[in-house]
Amino acid sequence: MNSYISTSWKEELERLIQGKSLVFLLADSNLPDSYSRDIIKVCNMETKTHLFKIKGGEEIKTHHHLILIYNELDRVGADRESVCICLGGGTISDLGGFAASTYKRGIDLVILPTTVVGMVDAAIGGKNGINVQSKVGILKNQIGTFYQPKLTGIDLKWLGSLPTDEVKSGWGEMLKHALLTGGPHLEQFKNAEPNLASLTPLIIDSGNIKEGIVRRDVKEKGERAILNLGHTIGHAIESLDLDSSHGSKSKHGIAIAWGIVFTLEVSVMKMGFNDALAKELIKWIVDIIGSREEIWGSDAVWFKMCKDKKNTNGNVKDVLLRNPGDADWGFTWEREEFTILWEQFRERYELTSF
Ligand SMILES: NC(=O)c1ccc[n+]([C@@H]2O[C@H](COP(=O)([O-])OP(=O)(O)OC[C@H]3O[C@@H](n4cnc5c(N)ncnc54)[C@H](O)[C@@H]3O)[C@@H](O)[C@H]2O)c1
Ligand SMILES: [Zn+2]
């Protein structure tokens, strides 16, 4: 894996684009213009830069938007010696990363994440992808590749314009890394508030936790699967929210945090996770994410879990914890047991189904 996280992205970028034919800057149109201007300034010293803006959000992870990008790459004459820079959150880097990995069988990719989710997670590890609108609803991240960026450049000042609910969503992914690591990082994270000032000093550490796990298992043959902690349920909730025309739509990290709450409960039963500690962690998490007015019933959630891309041979896989810092990625769900536990879980949090 030759990608690395750099906080001195300007110098790295300048070096990387030397001799390249064109820079294609895919930027989220929700960002202040000054962010892309700064990048264009750096690039234009070396290489002609073409700016293409798309409004970030889960809705753009589609074939339609992918084709828009291919067409634009083609229109501006991008070739195999061109570089694609993704400036935005996880939706821009998932979509743009997939486009870069497939256009002319792959052009160089740079990711400049502008959300907490992006900085600690989506921009690291080389996974990209789009959702599929199937006859039975949206299936998350079903089409994608492993494709390492040449550079992941982090500039914490880009977070200055990020809405507070997006910061909280980033807290959800940082929670995942903290639980997977345990020890002093988890303690520090527990003491942090879910706001930008408090989380900023922990962002680079959180990103490095992911990078370390990925580095040991780039293609997810084993250990990397622990990064799916909370995601079997979280993705199911997120996909059902997307399908629905009513009810609350969870941000990615908040859906994952709900997945983690359920996982902690199941980990007590199945893995001997300390009950008192699980209760303490769950209270802390739920106090931060707040309750959901409504949550999906077990049939709907099970249906989405069955479509999860990490399943093999029809088995619904999940990640549980023995302790903070000690995850097991080999757990397989039985439908009957899941149904009972999920319905109990919903009752406990006084949630009603649609
Ligand atoms: N590939 C991976 O390994 C990986 C890992 C985690 C998450 N993801 C994916 O990432 C996506 C979630 O990422 P996200 O939370 O960054 O979502 P996002 O890209 O939708 O960004 C969230 C919102 O914030 C806006 N925004 C982004 N940066 C901003 C800034 N600096 N100032 C103001 N507004 C800004 C966006 O326009 C959007 O409305 C999901 O699709 C998820 O599946 C991928
Ligand atoms: Zn995630």
**Distance separating the two termini:** 44 Å
Q: Could you say which small molecules are bound to this protein?
A: nicotinamide-adenine-dinucleotide, zinc ion
Which structural category fits the helices and strands?
alpha/beta
Tell me, what is the CATH class of the largest domain? Mainly Alpha
- Our count of helices gives 13
Characterize the biggest β-sheet: 6 strands, parallel
Mean pLDDT: 92
Pick out the low-confidence regions.
Answer: none
Quick description:
The protein is of the alpha/beta class and 354 residues long.
Q: How does this structure look, described?
A:
The protein folds into 2 domains: 5-162, Rossmann fold, CATH 3.40.50; 165-348, Dehydroquinate synthase-like - alpha domain (Dehydroquinate synthase-like, alpha domain, Up-down Bundle). 49% of the residues lie in helices and 16% in strands. It has helices spanning 9-16, 33-44, 63-75, 90-102, 116-122, 164-181, 183-191, 196-216, 231-243, 252-271, 275-289, 298-306, 335-348; strands at 5-6, 23-28, 49-54, 83-88, 108-113, 130-134, 137-143, 151-153, 316-323, 326-333. Strands 1-8-5-4-2-3 form a 6-stranded parallel β-sheet, with helices on both faces. Strand 6 (130-134) and strand 7 (137-143) form a beta hairpin. Helix 5 (116-122) packs parallel to helix 6 (164-181), helix 9 crosses helix 10 and helix 10 (252-271) packs antiparallel against helix 11 (275-289). The protein is globular, with a radius of gyration of 20 Å. Zinc ion is lined by residues 121, 173, 231, 252, 256. Zinc ion binds at residues 121, 173, 231, 252, 256.
